[in-house]
Amino acid sequence: MQLGMVGLGRMGDNMAERLRLGGHSVVGYDRNPDVSDVADLAGLVAALDAPRTVWVMVPAGDPTESTMAELRSLLSPGDLMIDGGNADYTDSVRRAGLAAEAGMGYVDAGVSGGVWGLTEGYALMVGGDAEHVERLMPALETLSPPEGGLAHVGPAGSGHFTKMVHNAIEYGMMHAFGEGYELLAASELGIDVPAAVGSWQNGSVVRSWLLDLMVRAIDEDPGFESIAGYANDSGEARWAMREAVRLAVPLPVTSAALFARFVSRQDDSPAMKVIAALRNQFGGHATKAAEDDDGSGAEA
User: To pair with 192 at 20 to 30 A between CA atoms, which of 173, 217, 277, 292?
Assistant: First the structure.
Protein backbone atom coordinates (compact mmCIF):
# COMPACT_ATOMS: atom_id res chain seq x y z
CA MET A 1 0.00 0.00 0.00
CA GLN A 2 0.97 3.69 -0.20
CA LEU A 3 1.59 5.67 2.99
CA GLY A 4 2.86 9.01 4.14
CA MET A 5 5.26 8.97 7.13
CA VAL A 6 5.52 12.14 9.20
CA GLY A 7 8.61 12.24 11.43
CA LEU A 8 11.78 10.54 10.19
CA GLY A 9 13.69 10.26 13.45
CA ARG A 10 15.15 7.11 15.00
CA MET A 11 11.81 5.27 14.86
CA GLY A 12 10.03 6.81 11.89
CA ASP A 13 12.93 6.50 9.47
CA ASN A 14 13.47 2.82 10.27
CA MET A 15 9.75 2.11 10.02
CA ALA A 16 9.61 3.80 6.61
CA GLU A 17 12.58 1.71 5.48
CA ARG A 18 11.03 -1.55 6.71
CA LEU A 19 7.82 -0.69 4.87
CA ARG A 20 9.73 0.01 1.67
CA LEU A 21 11.65 -3.24 1.99
CA GLY A 22 8.25 -4.94 2.34
CA GLY A 23 7.11 -3.58 -1.00
CA HIS A 24 5.11 -0.55 0.14
CA SER A 25 5.41 2.97 -1.25
CA VAL A 26 6.31 5.54 1.43
CA VAL A 27 6.50 9.32 1.11
CA GLY A 28 8.33 10.77 4.08
CA TYR A 29 8.17 14.23 5.63
CA ASP A 30 10.44 15.65 8.31
CA ARG A 31 11.31 19.16 9.42
CA ASN A 32 14.89 18.29 8.50
CA PRO A 33 14.99 18.93 4.72
CA ASP A 34 18.02 16.66 4.35
CA VAL A 35 15.91 13.54 5.03
CA SER A 36 12.48 14.70 3.82
CA ASP A 37 10.93 13.68 0.50
CA VAL A 38 8.67 16.76 0.43
CA ALA A 39 8.86 20.34 1.64
CA ASP A 40 5.90 20.33 4.02
CA LEU A 41 2.74 18.51 5.06
CA ALA A 42 0.82 20.01 2.16
CA GLY A 43 3.39 18.52 -0.18
CA LEU A 44 3.05 15.16 1.54
CA VAL A 45 -0.73 15.14 1.12
CA ALA A 46 -0.41 16.20 -2.53
CA ALA A 47 2.02 13.34 -3.21
CA LEU A 48 -0.43 10.67 -1.98
CA ASP A 49 -3.29 9.12 -3.91
CA ALA A 50 -6.78 9.29 -2.39
CA PRO A 51 -7.92 7.78 -0.12
CA ARG A 52 -4.72 8.69 1.72
CA THR A 53 -3.05 7.01 4.68
CA VAL A 54 -0.70 9.09 6.83
CA TRP A 55 1.31 7.68 9.76
CA VAL A 56 2.58 10.22 12.31
CA MET A 57 5.71 9.46 14.38
CA VAL A 58 6.47 12.67 16.28
CA PRO A 59 6.85 13.35 20.04
CA ALA A 60 3.78 13.40 22.27
CA GLY A 61 2.13 16.64 23.29
CA ASP A 62 2.26 19.81 21.20
CA PRO A 63 4.20 18.29 18.25
CA THR A 64 1.55 15.59 17.73
CA GLU A 65 -1.32 17.97 18.44
CA SER A 66 -0.21 20.55 15.90
CA THR A 67 0.64 17.91 13.30
CA MET A 68 -2.74 16.20 13.61
CA ALA A 69 -4.58 19.53 13.45
CA GLU A 70 -2.75 20.54 10.28
CA LEU A 71 -3.35 17.15 8.70
CA ARG A 72 -7.10 17.39 9.42
CA SER A 73 -7.13 20.69 7.53
CA LEU A 74 -5.30 19.17 4.55
CA LEU A 75 -6.79 15.68 4.26
CA SER A 76 -10.18 14.75 2.83
CA PRO A 77 -13.09 12.61 4.02
CA GLY A 78 -12.17 8.95 3.65
CA ASP A 79 -8.49 9.51 4.46
CA LEU A 80 -6.86 7.70 7.40
CA MET A 81 -4.53 9.07 10.08
CA ILE A 82 -2.38 6.90 12.36
CA ASP A 83 -0.70 8.19 15.51
CA GLY A 84 2.23 5.88 16.25
CA GLY A 85 3.93 8.01 18.90
CA ASN A 86 3.71 7.61 22.67
CA ALA A 87 0.57 9.70 23.10
CA ASP A 88 -1.64 10.06 26.15
CA TYR A 89 -4.59 7.78 25.38
CA THR A 90 -7.08 10.49 26.38
CA ASP A 91 -5.70 12.64 23.57
CA SER A 92 -6.10 9.71 21.18
CA VAL A 93 -9.77 9.31 22.10
CA ARG A 94 -10.34 13.04 21.51
CA ARG A 95 -8.44 13.06 18.21
CA ALA A 96 -10.40 10.06 16.97
CA GLY A 97 -13.60 12.03 17.60
CA LEU A 98 -12.28 15.05 15.71
CA ALA A 99 -11.26 12.84 12.79
CA ALA A 100 -14.68 11.21 12.71
CA GLU A 101 -16.37 14.62 12.62
CA ALA A 102 -14.30 15.41 9.53
CA GLY A 103 -15.20 12.08 7.92
CA MET A 104 -11.70 10.68 8.39
CA GLY A 105 -10.40 7.52 10.02
CA TYR A 106 -8.09 7.44 13.01
CA VAL A 107 -5.94 4.64 14.43
CA ASP A 108 -3.70 4.86 17.49
CA ALA A 109 -0.78 2.45 17.35
CA GLY A 110 1.47 1.76 20.29
CA VAL A 111 4.85 0.84 18.79
CA SER A 112 7.66 -0.96 20.62
CA GLY A 113 10.97 -2.07 19.17
CA GLY A 114 13.25 0.94 19.31
CA VAL A 115 16.16 1.16 16.91
CA TRP A 116 16.11 -2.63 16.48
CA GLY A 117 12.69 -2.63 14.86
CA LEU A 118 14.04 -2.29 11.32
CA THR A 119 15.56 -5.78 11.45
CA GLU A 120 13.57 -7.45 14.25
CA GLY A 121 10.13 -5.98 13.63
CA TYR A 122 7.89 -3.94 15.93
CA ALA A 123 5.37 -4.99 18.54
CA LEU A 124 2.18 -3.16 17.57
CA MET A 125 -0.75 -2.46 19.90
CA VAL A 126 -3.47 -0.99 17.70
CA GLY A 127 -6.67 0.80 18.62
CA GLY A 128 -9.45 1.96 16.30
CA ASP A 129 -12.48 0.88 14.31
CA ALA A 130 -12.18 -2.55 12.73
CA GLU A 131 -12.61 -1.18 9.18
CA HIS A 132 -9.72 1.25 9.63
CA VAL A 133 -7.41 -1.33 11.17
CA GLU A 134 -8.25 -3.79 8.39
CA ARG A 135 -7.42 -1.18 5.78
CA LEU A 136 -4.04 -0.64 7.44
CA MET A 137 -3.33 -4.35 7.91
CA PRO A 138 -0.86 -4.79 4.99
CA ALA A 139 1.45 -2.20 6.53
CA LEU A 140 0.93 -3.49 10.07
CA GLU A 141 1.84 -7.02 9.03
CA THR A 142 5.01 -5.77 7.34
CA LEU A 143 6.08 -3.78 10.39
CA SER A 144 5.46 -6.57 12.91
CA PRO A 145 7.70 -9.62 13.40
CA PRO A 146 6.68 -12.66 11.31
CA GLU A 147 6.23 -14.76 14.45
CA GLY A 148 3.67 -12.35 15.93
CA GLY A 149 3.50 -9.16 17.95
CA LEU A 150 0.53 -7.47 16.26
CA ALA A 151 -2.78 -7.03 18.08
CA HIS A 152 -5.93 -5.00 17.50
CA VAL A 153 -6.60 -4.38 21.19
CA GLY A 154 -9.81 -2.35 21.05
CA PRO A 155 -11.37 1.00 20.09
CA ALA A 156 -9.52 4.26 19.58
CA GLY A 157 -7.37 5.05 22.59
CA SER A 158 -6.81 1.44 23.57
CA GLY A 159 -3.61 1.15 21.54
CA HIS A 160 -1.93 3.96 23.45
CA PHE A 161 -3.40 2.80 26.77
CA THR A 162 -1.84 -0.63 26.15
CA LYS A 163 1.50 0.97 25.21
CA MET A 164 1.33 3.05 28.40
CA VAL A 165 1.01 -0.13 30.48
CA HIS A 166 3.78 -1.79 28.44
CA ASN A 167 6.17 1.06 29.19
CA ALA A 168 5.23 1.12 32.87
CA ILE A 169 6.23 -2.55 33.05
CA GLU A 170 9.44 -1.70 31.21
CA TYR A 171 10.29 0.92 33.85
CA GLY A 172 10.06 -1.69 36.60
CA MET A 173 12.05 -4.32 34.72
CA MET A 174 14.83 -1.92 33.85
CA HIS A 175 15.12 -0.69 37.43
CA ALA A 176 15.20 -4.23 38.81
CA PHE A 177 18.10 -5.09 36.49
CA GLY A 178 19.85 -1.91 37.56
CA GLU A 179 19.46 -2.71 41.25
CA GLY A 180 20.70 -6.26 40.71
CA TYR A 181 23.78 -5.02 38.88
CA GLU A 182 24.57 -2.53 41.65
CA LEU A 183 24.24 -5.15 44.39
CA LEU A 184 26.52 -7.59 42.54
CA ALA A 185 29.11 -4.85 42.00
CA ALA A 186 28.97 -3.79 45.68
CA SER A 187 29.73 -7.26 47.04
CA GLU A 188 33.07 -7.80 48.80
CA LEU A 189 33.36 -11.24 47.18
CA GLY A 190 34.94 -9.94 43.98
CA ILE A 191 32.14 -11.24 41.79
CA ASP A 192 32.75 -11.21 38.04
CA VAL A 193 29.69 -9.11 37.32
CA PRO A 194 29.65 -9.45 33.50
CA ALA A 195 29.94 -13.23 33.83
CA ALA A 196 27.26 -13.34 36.52
CA VAL A 197 24.78 -11.29 34.50
CA GLY A 198 25.65 -13.20 31.33
CA SER A 199 24.79 -16.48 33.02
CA TRP A 200 21.18 -15.34 33.25
CA GLN A 201 20.78 -15.21 29.47
CA ASN A 202 20.17 -18.93 29.06
CA GLY A 203 17.87 -21.06 31.17
CA SER A 204 17.12 -18.34 33.74
CA VAL A 205 13.59 -17.22 34.51
CA VAL A 206 14.73 -13.59 34.10
CA ARG A 207 16.15 -14.07 30.60
CA SER A 208 14.76 -11.42 28.24
CA TRP A 209 15.64 -9.01 25.47
CA LEU A 210 16.23 -6.30 28.08
CA LEU A 211 18.75 -8.60 29.77
CA ASP A 212 20.46 -9.21 26.43
CA LEU A 213 20.71 -5.45 25.90
CA MET A 214 22.13 -5.04 29.41
CA VAL A 215 24.84 -7.63 28.69
CA ARG A 216 25.60 -5.83 25.43
CA ALA A 217 25.89 -2.50 27.28
CA ILE A 218 28.25 -4.04 29.87
CA ASP A 219 30.43 -5.50 27.11
CA GLU A 220 30.63 -2.12 25.38
CA ASP A 221 31.43 -0.15 28.54
CA PRO A 222 32.37 -2.25 31.60
CA GLY A 223 31.53 -0.27 34.71
CA PHE A 224 29.54 2.23 32.63
CA GLU A 225 32.33 4.78 33.02
CA SER A 226 31.16 6.86 30.06
CA ILE A 227 27.50 7.01 31.11
CA ALA A 228 26.03 9.53 33.57
CA GLY A 229 23.61 8.16 36.17
CA TYR A 230 20.79 10.32 34.85
CA ALA A 231 17.56 9.02 33.31
CA ASN A 232 14.74 10.96 31.69
CA ASP A 233 11.16 9.75 31.50
CA SER A 234 9.05 10.27 28.42
CA GLY A 235 5.65 10.42 30.11
CA GLU A 236 4.14 6.95 29.94
CA ALA A 237 4.84 6.00 33.56
CA ARG A 238 3.36 9.30 34.74
CA TRP A 239 0.20 8.61 32.76
CA ALA A 240 0.10 5.07 34.15
CA MET A 241 0.32 6.42 37.71
CA ARG A 242 -2.51 8.84 36.96
CA GLU A 243 -4.69 5.98 35.73
CA ALA A 244 -3.68 3.81 38.68
CA VAL A 245 -4.91 6.49 41.08
CA ARG A 246 -8.12 6.97 39.09
CA LEU A 247 -8.85 3.24 38.97
CA ALA A 248 -7.47 2.46 42.46
CA VAL A 249 -4.98 -0.06 41.05
CA PRO A 250 -1.78 -0.37 43.14
CA LEU A 251 1.43 0.08 41.10
CA PRO A 252 4.22 0.13 43.72
CA VAL A 253 6.94 -1.13 41.35
CA THR A 254 6.13 1.39 38.62
CA SER A 255 5.94 4.28 41.07
CA ALA A 256 9.27 3.36 42.67
CA ALA A 257 10.97 3.08 39.28
CA LEU A 258 9.54 6.42 38.14
CA PHE A 259 10.56 8.24 41.31
CA ALA A 260 14.04 6.72 41.07
CA ARG A 261 14.42 8.46 37.72
CA PHE A 262 13.48 11.73 39.37
CA VAL A 263 16.15 11.11 42.00
CA SER A 264 18.73 10.53 39.28
CA ARG A 265 18.35 14.14 38.16
CA GLN A 266 19.30 15.61 41.53
CA ASP A 267 22.98 16.33 42.10
CA ASP A 268 22.39 16.71 45.83
CA SER A 269 18.87 15.78 46.95
CA PRO A 270 17.21 18.48 49.06
CA ALA A 271 15.03 15.81 50.68
CA MET A 272 18.07 13.77 51.70
CA LYS A 273 19.64 16.91 53.13
CA VAL A 274 16.58 17.31 55.36
CA ILE A 275 16.79 13.65 56.41
CA ALA A 276 20.50 13.98 57.25
CA ALA A 277 19.84 17.16 59.24
CA LEU A 278 16.98 15.56 61.17
CA ARG A 279 19.07 12.49 62.06
CA ASN A 280 21.71 14.83 63.39
CA GLN A 281 19.14 16.80 65.40
CA PHE A 282 17.40 13.92 67.15
CA GLY A 283 20.22 11.46 67.48
CA GLY A 284 23.45 13.30 67.00
CA HIS A 285 24.23 11.31 63.83
CA ALA A 286 27.14 12.79 61.89
CA THR A 287 26.40 14.40 58.56
CA LYS A 288 28.28 13.65 55.36
CA ALA A 289 30.47 16.67 55.97
CA ALA A 290 31.61 15.38 59.34
CA GLU A 291 34.85 13.43 59.22
CA ASP A 292 34.21 11.50 62.42
CA ASP A 293 31.15 9.54 61.15
CA ASP A 294 31.51 5.99 62.46
CA GLY A 295 29.08 4.69 59.84
CA SER A 296 26.97 2.83 62.41
CA GLY A 297 23.72 3.93 60.80
CA ALA A 298 21.78 3.32 64.03
CA GLU A 299 18.51 5.20 64.35
CA ALA A 300 17.33 6.66 67.65
Answer: 173
Neighbours of 19 (CB within 10 A): 21
Q: Looking at 17, 65, 170, 243, which residue is catalytic?
A: 170
| DSSP-assigned states of every residue in 245-297 | HHHT---HHHHHHHHHHHHHT-SS-HHHHHHHHHHHHHH-PPPTT-TT-----
Confidence of residue 72 (pLDDT cuts 50, 70, 90): very high
Active-site entry in 141, 163, 220, 236 = 163
**HSE, side-chain direction, 13 A CA sphere, residue 31:** 7
Nearest to 157 by CA among 116, 108, 195: 108
Annotated catalytic, 70? no
Question: What is the structure's pLDDT at 76?
Answer: 97
pLDDT digits over 181-194, tens only?
999 999 999 999 99
Global pTM? 0.88
